[in-house]
């Protein structure tokens, strides 16, 4: 009797509050992966689970998303490691794109189509690389924009509880791991210990900048006043300076209606997750239409920031029937919109968006 051939599954470590994790979930949907192909494992960042010794053995950077994939043709017991971890969103999405195609015989029950999401020409590939690099650059970081997301005291009161709770959860976890190490309950390398100490000090710095965030201006101590001013300055630098430049550059690079033109590509799954996060941080909603979502984002960036309204879309409108025009719909030109508004409307219509972010109402 032959032993059943068990093929190990890929494992995606993710957090549903992490923008880049959601980009990978969108990619899984767009590529038509079945539930039997990838196991999803939650790593709760707000509880510092990404710093656990177990997770750091998988990804020493302690970041999600992380995709652990079995090596091909290495299902022999003598292999030291039969898995490899892909720890970068761009590489994970590229891997998922290549691993499921019409030609591939994967162990799947999914009959969904497997469209190629990577651009086919050199020119489009270069454009894809450039946009992906732009939205993964430091000034575009969803984490930075989450940490520094209030330019006045009223907004600070609203946003600081969730930011503080997140940071306190991380700090607690780091202290716990460091204490376990101190008590010799766990054995970790000097490198890991240093990693924890560095993360703890940056977390504490961020927490200090939110010190007294719940107090009204007149009740602040001198230190509290200074910390608040600095926090507002950092928010301004992040949104009004850094992100504004990224958004302006991005909207010049977009083709429309998708990032690279008429067809969805890998760029769009990165963009969808990133844009969704920015609009959410700006107080917008998944159910907003493109113009509403992007207007919220523009207002939240501050300093009178606006994007060029350079996307002209034609909507079909029924023209009166006549002998020269039997039934052909005429087209009406809508007022020009920012390209990002068109992209938002295009992405929110997709089943992948609705599955990952919730159905549009
Ligand atoms: N360059 C990495 C960044 C991933 C990343 O920073 N992920 C965030 C969540 S969106 C994270 O895991 N942060 C945890 C931490 O830095 O402690 C990528 O593109 O995959």
From TrEMBL:
The record's section on InterPro entries has:
Glutathione-S-Trfase_C_sf, Glutathione_S-Trfase_N, Thioredoxin-like_sf
List the protein's name. GST N-terminal domain-containing protein
Tell me which Gene Ontology terms the entry assigns under biological process: glutathione metabolic process; L-phenylalanine catabolic process
> Entry's Gene3D superfamilies?
Glutaredoxin
Origin species, per record, is: Lactarius akahatsu
Query: From what superkingdom does this record's organism come?
Result: Eukaryota
Note the Pfam families from the entry. Answer: GST_N_2 (PF13409)
Q: Where is the GST N-terminal domain?
A: 8-104
Return the PROSITE patterns for the record.
Answer: GST_NTER (PS50404)
GO MF term list: glutathione transferase activity; maleylacetoacetate isomerase activity
